[in-house]
Amino acid sequence: RPRVLSGIQPTADSFHFGNYLGAVRQWVALQDDHEAFYCVVDLHAITVEYDPKALRERTRRSAAQLLAAGIDPERSTLFVQSQVPEHAQLAWVMSCITGMGEASRMTQFKDKTAKGGADRATVGLFTYPILQAADILVYQADRVPVGEDQRQHVELTRDLAQRFNHRFGKTFRVPEAYIVKETAKIFDLQDPSSKMSKSSSSAAGIIDLLDEPKASAKKIRSAVTDSGRDVVFDEENKPGVANLLTIYSALTGRKISELEDEYAGRGYGDFKKDLADVVVEFVTPFREKTLTYLDDKAQLDAILAAGAERARAVTEPTLAKVYDRLGFVPGP
Ligand code: ATP
Ligand code: MG
Question: Which ligand gives the minimal distance to the CA of 209?
Fold first, then answer.
């Protein structure tokens, strides 16, 4: 079976609809016919300012949400990145074959430092994509289900894998991004020109999966729509409505054209009200399941520890092979 690897950062109390529709939903689907590795990437989360206590809580909340979304820890290997040391070890190696120029071209770093300025950012935030490359390569993953914003990082990963293979002999599988076009980029409800993001969306712009369902409904109803009153999918002129149509279609499995027909001549009000209902129907059981998983922290930690052990069965041999190729003297 082909291998799949992906990760999510514990940088917020809740995942949002972008995370779910852009990535996590695919993770759940892919575990059926893939050997799947899914992780909560806490090493990535410390690249920006954070609170240690909140990180621990958010890491567990992230794992609980993945379970609630349908990740099955029997079929998939679910773990926390910091519990598998080979990620960080391989990241160092990868950083030694990455050019400063190519690292500097990564747009996520530019986006995330647009406000505070690059001088105030950490080196870790700069090398983030190199750690991500190591995450993927250490599992010899074939596919990486992510949102559109991560495409460039998967491209870098491919370049690094090919470079290493060329220089030191075939070692890594060269992975492919797995991006579902329709939901690859979910936009901020208040600013439909930027992506919905845990760290940069305003509270009103983001629909969190763990929000009070009533609060989510309200956010949908007050989402920015565009002038006019026709519910049509026009990303250029009506990005707000297009975004809501994307979410509506993804949650119900109904075609966008079908939704356009249904709301023809009815205006935005009805459309938003119905979408709010659809969202409430989705988040209500999701939230309950997540809270149930969080009730038993010992069990949650045990699931993650077992996952880390299974992960290491793959990462240790990969790293040993890499160290050998690099010319390191074998250790004890
Ligand atoms: P942060 O703002 O802290 O970077 P984030 O919201 O971007 O958080 P991540 O943990 O970085 O979330 O990303 C997890 C996964 O969710 C990635 O595969 C990413 O591509 C995907 N993703 C994030 N935001 C969106 C979005 N708005 N639309 C589609 N996919 C998204
Ligand atoms: Mg992100």
Answer: 1
